[in-house]
Amino acid sequence: MNEVGMAIRELHRSENAIAVELLRIADRHKTDHEVFHVARDIARWSQRHVRELARVGRDYGVDLDDEPKEPHELPAALRRRASELLGRRHAPSLLLLRDLRTAHRMAAGVSLDWEVLAQTAQALGDRELLAASQRCHPQTLRQLRWANAKLKEIAAQAVVTA
């Protein structure tokens, strides 16, 4: 496998990881309906990116699973129940703050990887790889902006009232 293939493989792994993390965040914060629904929606973007990367990876000799990973069901069910029991007390706001920081860092890393892949595609004149980057990277940037906006919204209250 060449370096382009390794970059595609790493981005595929990172997109899977952020999709799983966003689904976990949704499950942990089920009582916060905005977080629950938005996190699930933007996780689907990364799941589509996983499929896209598996498709374009074939051109570089990379055999990637085109089915996105899912969080394990039993732990997810337990997290949902715990979230329901905790409700909206102060401890859950600190947990949400931690989760949003994690999502933000992950999305920032994925965004950089998309940028590297786009620059590589331009250098190679690979229009298909560049088109995939141009389709997927803006959604990653939106994931990053969502996590940042939610952090700004809850940070002061979560820390001051903890």
Write up what this structure looks like.
The chain is elongated. Helix content is 83%, strand content 0%. The longest helix is centred in the middle third of the chain and has 35 residues, at 90-124. Helix 1 (3-28) packs antiparallel against helix 2 (33-57), helix 1 packs antiparallel against helix 4 (90-124) and helix 2 (33-57) runs antiparallel to helix 5. It has one domain (3-160): Ferritin, core subunit, four-helix bundle (Ferritin), CATH 1.20.1260. The protein has 162 residues and is mostly helical. The chain has five helices and no strands.
First CA to last CA: what distance?
A: 50 Å
CATH topology: Ferritin
Q: Can you write the helix and strand succession as a string?
A: HHHHH
Taking Cα atoms only, what radius of gyration do you get, to the nearest Å? 17 Å
Please give the CATH architecture: Up-down Bundle
Shape: elongated
Structural class: mainly alpha
Indicate the proportion of strand residues: under 5%
The profile of the biggest β sheet is: none
CATH class: Mainly Alpha
Count of domains: 1
Average pLDDT works out at: 90
Percentage of helical residues? over 70%
Number of helices: 5
Low-confidence parts? none
The count of DSSP E runs of length 2 or more, i.e. the number of strands, is 0
Kindly report the name of the CATH homologous superfamily.
Ferritin, core subunit, four-helix bundle
Summarize the SSE layout with pairings.
Layout: H1 3-28, H2 33-57, H3 73-86, H4 90-124, H5 127-160
Helix pairs in contact: 1-2, 1-4, 2-5, 4-5
